[in-house]
Design brief:
Elements: E1 8-14, E2 21-27, E3 35-44, H1 47-55, E4 64-65, E5 69-77, E6 89-93, E7 110-114, E8 118-120, H2 127-131, H3 134-147, E9 168-171, H4 176-188, E10 194-198, H5 203-209, E11 213-216, H6 222-229, E12 238-241, E13 263-267, E14 280-284, H7 302-307, E15 317-322, H8 324-330, E16 341-345
Parallel strand pairs: 9-10, 9-12, 10-11, 12-13, 13-14, 15-16
Antiparallel strand pairs: 1-2, 1-4, 3-5, 3-7, 3-16, 5-6, 6-8
Helix pairs in contact: 3-4
Length: 346
């Protein structure tokens, strides 16, 4: 143990499944040699945080500090950390499973993370925008590379196993993960047909990120519209479901090309998706990327990718509250927004 801070810090603890939340003051922990203490300035909100509160998804104990990602300044570093220094602005993956179970996730004033789970803030974006980057980026990479075995050659540390699909459908294209997946696939495959579902008001942005065609998910003819937009009208090769759309649109697999690979990757949202016989289904959990080749280099690579223009902030970012006191009151807003990312500043 190499760095100690005996100051008190505040956590927003969810006391039991369903709530309530309570602010609790605890001692800032001792750091290990490869860890960093971040003074939070921005906390990004994610739909999974609501599912954790309401259904206990991925929660091992109560009380629990929820929250998945945020951004702030480096307040202390371990003895083996040399990639960041005191005062640096950083964004981080702050999901609890990577830390001591008693310490928790993003909903607190100070967060301890291993250095491989943070990135320096890109110089060309705001701290609020930086806070929105880690989760959707890693989740999109996980769906593409791990689940569907589609290589992303420009992320050089990752496995090159697999091959490009003939076409892709992204359900929930205007979600943060969907918008991330669109641009990652477009960067890797300039001519790949990328179809995405979204409300029509987000069409221009998704096309700008690289979508070939954006289909209105509210249309009563969404299935036939997707097939008509697919290459030759035959259907799509693979599906990435970012919002559990298949749980309600139960005939969505009808858009798969019968002669294609018929693979379906569904991002973990807490809502199960069933697929028919003959379709290969993958549950996508971003955390599993860190156990794979190059996984620990993903988040540190974000600064360079954003600064050089290879990767863009997927969605506009909006501040919906300030302080831990307001966070509990505004958390549910994340379930009603469309095509934007919501954050709380501290």
């Amino acid at each position: 143990m190499t760095s100690v801070n005996t100051q008190m810090t505040a956590q927003l603890q969810c006391m039991q499944q369903g709530g309530p939340f309570k602010i609790v003051h605890v001692t800032t922990p001792t750091l290990g040699p490869d860890q960093v203490l971040i003074r939070q300035r921005v906390i990004a909100l994610n739909p999974i945080n609501v599912k954790q509160r309401d259904e206990g998804i991925t929660v091992s104990h109560w009380p629990c500090v929820l929250g998945s990602e945020g951004a702030g300044t480096v307040a202390a570093v371990g003895s083996k950390v040399n990639s960041v220094q005191l005062g640096d602005e950083v964004a981080a993956w702050e999901v609890e499973p990577h830390f001591d179970g008693s310490w928790g996730g993003a909903f607190q004033d100070h967060v301890v993370v291993a250095v491989e789970f943070l990135a320096k803030k890109p110089k060309n974006i705001t701290l609020e925008e930086a806070a929105s980057l880690p989760i959707c980026f890693v989740t999109a990479v996980s769906a593409i590379v791990e689940s569907l075995k589609i290589p992303l050659p420009f992320l050089e540390a990752l496995s090159t196993e697999g091959a490009a699909p003939s076409s892709v459908l992204i359900l929930g294209g205007s979600s943060a993960t969907g918008a991330a997946a669109i641009q990652l696939l477009r960067k890797a495959y300039p001519s790949l047909p990328i179809l995405a579902t979204s409300s029509t008001k987000h069409r221009a942005r998704l096309e700008d990120l690289g979508a070939t065609c954006v289909i209105d998910y509210k249309s009563t003819s969404v299935i036939s519209n997707i097939k008509a937009a697919s290459p030759g009208g035959a259907g799509v090769d693979v599906i990435i479901d970012c919002v559990s759309a298949g749980a309600s649109q139960t005939d969505i697999c009808d858009v798969l090309d019968p002669a294609g690979s018929k693979r379906y990757a569904a991002v973990l949202t807490g809502v199960p998706v069933a697929v028919p016989e003959g379709v290969t289904f993958f549950d996508t959990m971003a955390v599993s990327m860190f156990g794979l080749q190059g996984g620990h280099q993903l988040i540190p690579s974000l600064a360079k990718l954003v600064e050089e223009g290879t990767y863009r902030v997927p969605l506009p970012v909006r501040v919906v509250g300030h302080g831990l006191e307001q966070l509990a009151d505004v958390l549910d807003e994340v379930m009603t927004v469309s095509g934007e990312k919501v954050v709380v500043t501290l």
